[in-house]
Amino acid sequence: MKKTISSISAVVTLATLFMLPMEAGAKEMTGEEVTFGRKLGNCLACHMIPGGNLPGNIGPPLLAMKARFPDKATLRAQIW
Q1: Please, what is the end-to-end C-alpha distance for the chain in angstroms?
Q2: SS3 of 67, please?
Q3: How far is CA 67 from CA 47, 48, 61, in A?
Q4: What is the pLDDT of residues 17-29, one digit of tens each?
Q5: Most confident listed range (8-17, 23-32, 69-78)
Q6: Residue of 77, 75, 58 lying closest to 66 (CA atoms)
Q7: How many angstroms separate the CA atoms of 62 and 55, rounded?
Q8: Whole-angstrom distance, CA of residue 43 vs CA of residue 38
Q9: What pTM was computed for the model?
């Protein structure tokens, strides 16, 4: 069940990112803008993220991700 919710969340986030308008000269967004923005990734709704206010508790905390998943392939396998 958790993996299904995580998968759905990841797909929705990626779909949202791909639907964003890409204009010539548009400012590239930071990861914080995507994860904390309610209209974008809104990762903070489900996850505890350093620096975030009112984090959710549905998803796992996104703390020390580089230490927990030094290999990006392992992280990707965990999510997908």
Answers
A1: 13
A2: helix
A3: 17, 16, 13
A4: 666 665 555 677 7
A5: 69-78
A6: 75
A7: 10
A8: 8
A9: 0.52
Classify residue 51 as left (phi > 0), alpha (psi -120 to 50) or beta: left
The confidence score (pLDDT) of residue 29 equals 78
The residue with tokens 């990707």 is: 76
3-state secondary structure of 44: helix
Distance between CA atoms of residues 10 and 50, nearest Å: 19
Q: Where are the domains of the chain?
A: 2-79
C-alpha span between 55 and 45 (Å, rounded):
6
**Sign of the Cα pseudo-torsion (61, 72, 77, 18, in order):** positive
Q: Tokens standing for 52?
A: 């975030």
Backbone angles phi, psi at 28, to 5 degrees: -75, 135
d(C-alpha 38, C-alpha 24), whole Å? 24
Q: Left, alpha or beta for 50 (phi > 0: left; psi -120 to 50: alpha)?
A: beta
